[in-house]
Amino acid sequence: MIQKFLKELSDDYENLFETEIGYDVIIYAGDESNVKEIHAHSNILCTRSKYFRTAFSNGWAIKKDGKFVFRKSNIQPHLFDIILRFIYSGNIELKNLHGPDILNLLIAVDELNIQQLISHIQAYLIKYRTELLHQNPFCILEIVYQHETFTNLRDFCLEKICEDPKILFNSDKFVNLQAPLLELFLKRNDLFMDEIEVWESLLKWCLAQLIMENDPTKWNKDDMTRIERLLHKFIPLIRFYDIGPTDFFYKVYNYKDILPQDLINDLLEFHVVPNMKPKINVPPPRKRILNLNLDSNIIQLNHIPLFASWIDRKESSYYNNKNIPYDFKLLYNSDRDGFNAESFHKNCDNKGATIWVAKIRGSTQLIGGYNPLDWNGYGFKYTTNSFLFNIKDGNDISTAKLGYVKKPDEAIYCYYNQGPHMGYFYCKHNNEWTNNDRNATCYPNIGIPSLNFRVENYEVFQIIKK
Predict the structure, then answer these.
(1) pLDDT in tens, 414-427
(2) Where does the BTB domain start and stop, copy by copy (predicted)?
(3) When you count CB atoms within 10 A of the terminal residue's CB, does the N or C end of the chain come out lower?
């Protein structure tokens, strides 16, 4: 019988790294403002890393006083320490690292050719740190484009941005996107944008590259030649036949002088002549998300998978717009139905599970809660599945905080002359809401304003299992 004592082996090697007994490698990690001397053992580095094996065999390292000396100014000391601990012990912990550090660690392990960590860190980012994509999609795209080994992260980023294009296409940095990356998006069938938006985004990008204004009447012949050349390889990627006649006339035909003449003629014929078919083989329309209809003045499509994930107590990125197991049916809109408790109960009682969302007056902040029961009746109701949420910036779901009920017997309160009431947080009078200090015993403090505050509007959605 073979006994394996892997943990003891791992601990012993990590202890060797920490005590530095018999080290023969000196690594200077970090730049001039933050350099740390780290000691290691060449036999272990060669055994565990192709990079170091090559470095020692090719003489990359200088040998001084019997010790190999490396300088890695482009890898921060604390990240190099993490990498070496993994080389020695096989252990790594990522949860305490900030997002930029995880990305820099991924770049470092790619340079050092540590394949296990390249795959592991990508998987960790995809599963646990998707907020980084919303915070800085441009930066992550640039990173994955520059590193061929980041295929999993690249595919994930492309898919997520195609599901919610505004996180990139509405960004100020969109115009700085490299041409090959833009081309990747325009080739995708799952880019969730109307085709006229795709065309306008491309035009915006092109004009920014050439530092030109968006007024074709002010372009001279040289201007048109420059933009034609830049647009040339992108034109076949725009599905012009999926642009409606009105948008075509006002937003495409205006640029007829920089588009291929045969394309303009064919499109004119297509829109003017009844039942005319395209004369060329055209790609199919970009796939739309057919299973998600959202009727709301407050939330956006990217909020729905987030709410669905919370309802099922999953990680925030568990669901996406393609696999949401619920329909969200708008029951009540305070602007439409009247900002009073009577209208709320008329529309929402006896409808089962609901989620409500309110926009705080004078801000982009969204607050809300999930009631898995109903709003009819009188008094407190027991549930372990309700929650409150606070999205500090409603346009950025990475700013969301979530709090599940702590005191189930006071989770939901129902009363005919009040709107949504959870714990001791409730709609008091019309658009005036109050978050009583006692609510801290029922739900965690997630940054919802305390005491009295006002909201601009709130909506209630019925949650229907598909």
Answers:
(1) 988 888 999 988 87
(2) 23-96
(3) N
